[in-house]
Automatic annotation (TrEMBL):
<dbReference type="InterPro" id="IPR038704">
    <property type="entry name" value="YEAST_sf"/>
</dbReference>
<dbReference type="InterPro" id="IPR055129">
    <property type="entry name" value="YEATS_dom"/>
</dbReference>
<dbReference type="GO" id="GO:0005634">
    <property type="term" value="C:nucleus"/>
</dbReference>
<keyword id="KW-0804">Transcription</keyword>
<keyword id="KW-0539">Nucleus</keyword>
<dbReference type="GO" id="GO:0006355">
    <property type="term" value="P:regulation of DNA-templated transcription"/>
</dbReference>
<feature type="domain" description="YEATS">
    <location>
        <begin position="16"/>
        <end position="160"/>
    </location>
</feature>
<keyword id="KW-0805">Transcription regulation</keyword>
<protein>
    <recommendedName>
        <fullName>YEATS domain-containing protein</fullName>
    </recommendedName>
</protein>
<dbReference type="Pfam" id="PF03366">
    <property type="entry name" value="YEATS"/>
</dbReference>
<dbReference type="InterPro" id="IPR005033">
    <property type="entry name" value="YEATS"/>
</dbReference>
Length: 209
């Protein structure tokens, strides 16, 4: 296949790979600890919200920053994290849906993507008896799909071997292990839920240009 057949020029002059796809798996999660005797009406739990690699690897070569949009009742409800670990810590009493906006490395030339995730404080099996010993973990696997990616970005990330996060999360011991070969149904759902659809967006932009 010639260069002209495998690449095309995008609306901003970038060279993109035709019919190519780069899939980048991540995990969005919350980990909540009941405060027990220290709990108050407004602060019953300490919880963490995070974005991580499926093997806790550094994902900074693809993700530039993560913006966590919390419930509007929180002071400074929009929290921006610009380096791994992409994680925030908070206290509260109620569950709510969080909006996470991911910004990608500049050379990807892609728009941000949003992921929604539920903060869970109580074990669904026994919500009336929270435990101070075992946190409530809610994690979801997502696949970020870059369709017809920028050639230079694709070459960089596919030849990059990520190492561990320099400052690992303090709650890493509670993270679940994701085995893709055992979770194909969940992975398929994730791919349908979080596809960047770069190719279609690119074509729309070219039509409007």
């Amino acid at each position: 296949m010639s260069t002209a057949e495998r690449t095309f020029v995008g609306s901003r002059g970038e060279t993109r790979l035709r019919h190519k796809e780069f899939v980048f798996p991540v995990v969005v999660g919350t980990c909540a600890f009941y405060l027990g005797k220290k709990a108050t009406e407004t602060q019953s739990h300490k919880w963490y919200l995070y974005l991580r690699g499926i093997n806790n690897e550094d994902i900074g070569h693809v993700v530039k920053k993560a913006i966590f949009n919390l419930h509007p009742t929180f002071p400074t409800p929009q929290r921006e994290v610009t380096a791994p670990p992409f994680e925030i810590e908070e206290h509260g009493w109620g569950e709510f849906e969080v909006n996470v906006v991911l910004h990608f490395a500049d050379d990807s030339q892609e728009q941000p993507v949003e992921i929604y995730h539920k903060l869970k404080l109580y074990d669904e099996a026994d919500p009336n008896n929270p435990s101070t010993k075992k946190p409530v973990l809610n994690e979801q696997y997502e696949e970020l799909i870059f369709s017809e990616p920028v050639e230079s970005f694709f070459n960089r990330v596919t030849n990059f071997q990520p190492g561990p996060v320099q400052s690992p999360s303090g709650i890493q011991a509670h993270f679940r292990h994701f085995a893709p070969e055992e979770d194909m149904q969940r992975i398929t759902a994730a791919r349908q839920r979080v596809a960047l659809m770069c190719a279609s967006v690119q074509r729309q932009a070219e039509m409007l240009a």
